[in-house]
Amino acid sequence: xxxxxxxxxxxxxIATSVMGGAGLVLASVPFLASWRPSDRAKAQGAPVDVDxxxxxxxxxxxxxxxxxxxxxxxxxPEMLAVLDKIADILVDPNSTVESQQPPYTRNLxxxxxxxxxxxxxxxxxxxCVPTEHFPVGAASGIEADWPGGYxxxxxxxxxxxxxxxxxxxxxxxxxxxxxxxFLGDTRVLVGIxxxxxxxxxxG
Length: 203
Ligand code: FES
Known about the structure:
There is one protein chain. The protein is of the alpha+beta class and about 200 residues long. The chain has a single domain, classed as Rieske [2Fe-2S] iron-sulphur domain (Rieske Iron-sulfur Protein), CATH 2.102.10.10. Helix content is about 15%, strand content about 20%. It contains four helices and ten strands, in the order H-E-H-E-E-E-H-E-E-E-E-E-E-H. The termini are far apart. The N terminus is likely disordered. The structure holds FE2/S2 (inorganic) cluster (FES).
């Protein structure tokens, strides 16, 4: 079991499918032209600017924010179609636990843009990093009626493609959606709220 835990933890900062560009906020960012992270702010985890333009539908990338892996997932229409069909197997399908997501992502998709999911890739049980299993059914290697999502190999917790936790697993709550704001069609700033920039959230 220790080996499995260590193996899972080593995945922490390894891009699962595609590694995207990420860096501290640049002065040219709209709405934030006068904002500069101080050294102290950087140490505490300044926002991370993620370019996911190379991400194809059905792929995800991993970046680091405040020492945590954050996944950006480009969901396909087929992936989105599953989300409103599996409420009966989920603990909190409507994302009612306030601490698990910002208010502007408290919707069916748990995202600002349905096709782009941003979520912290840390299991809410004891902190392992789950593994993506996007294929549905037996092809996932999980179970025959698997709807697509994430499986935590440490103790068997399961999450759907919106990071919502399944019933009867050790993890108590959905994965955490970090504050974030889109800076364009293929650029997202992780670690800052839409309210801080004046950007309207959709969905
Ligand atoms: S840490 Fe994920 S199931 Fe225990």
